[in-house]
Specification:
The protein is about 45% helix and about 15% strand. It is built from eleven helices and nine strands. Helix 1 packs across helix 4 and helix 2 crosses helix 4. The longest helix is centred in the first third of the chain and has 23 residues. It is globular. It starts with a helix and ends in a 26-residue tail after the last helix.
Length: about 280
Amino acid sequence: MPILLRALAALPLPILHSVGAIVGWLVYLGSPRFRKYLGENLAAAGYRDRALLRACVAEMGKGALELPAIWLRSQAEAARLVVEVQGWEQVESALAQGRGAIMLTPHLGCWEVTAQYFSRHHPITVLYSPPKLGSIEPLMLRGRTREGMRSVPPDVSGIRALLRALREGGAVGILPDQVPGVGEGAWTEFFGRPAYTMTLVGRLAEKTGAPVLLGFAERLPRGRGYRMQVLPLPEPLPGESAQRRLNRGIEELVRRCPSQYLWAYNRYKVPAGAAPPERREG
C-alpha cells in the first residue's frame, strides 16, 4: 500500500482526479453499504437529483486519490495546490484578537489541503484520529506533522494540547462532523435527522473565547487545484444549542458545494454505549 500511494503522489492532480472519478464508480457499484448511505443521506437532506448523486460518486473517488498528493508531496507543493482563497481575512482578524482561532473543516472538498495551506501562514494544532487501515497511518502522520503543523490524538492529552495552543493565541483544526465517542457528544439535528454531535468545539470556545471559523477547499474542474473558502460560524439563534449552531453552520457550508460532501459517511450512527436519540411523536 505505501508503495502504491507514493506512486500516486507523483501523478499530476488532473490525472488523479480523472482516475479517482472511475474509482468512485467502482466503489459505488461494488458496495451496497456505500450506495445505501449515499442515497439515504442525500434524500434526507432534500437532494434527490440523480445528476447530483452521480457527481457525488465521482467526487468521493477524487477525494480518495488526491490524498497521496497532499500527504507525500512537500508542504510547499501541497499548499500551492490551493490556487484561490476567499475569506482569509477572517483568519487574520480572529488571530489578531489574541485568543486563538478554532478552524473547522468538515468532510467537504479536500479537507486535508486546508491545514497545509493554513500552516504555511500560521502554526496550527490539528486533532488527529488514526485511520482504520494501520498501514497508511505513518504516511498520514507524515502529511499532518510538518513545519507549523502539529497533530494530537483525540484523548485527554490532545484536548489539553488544543487548549494550550488556543490560550497561547494559536489556531487549532478540527473535523467537526465526525461522530464522537460516548459522553463526548449530544443528539441534535443535522440535515433533518438526529446526529450525535461533538461538544468539544463549544467547550473550547467557551473556555478560551476563541472565534470559531468554518473552511473548506473546493475542488476545481479538471484538476486545476482548489478554491479555499473561510467563513465565521453563523450567529446563534434564540434558544439554539451550541451543537445545533455548529451543525447549522456545516449545513450552510455544504449547500455551497453539495456534490463534494462525504454523504456516504455514516454520520447518523449511534456510538457504542450511547443511548439512541428519542423518537419524535407523530
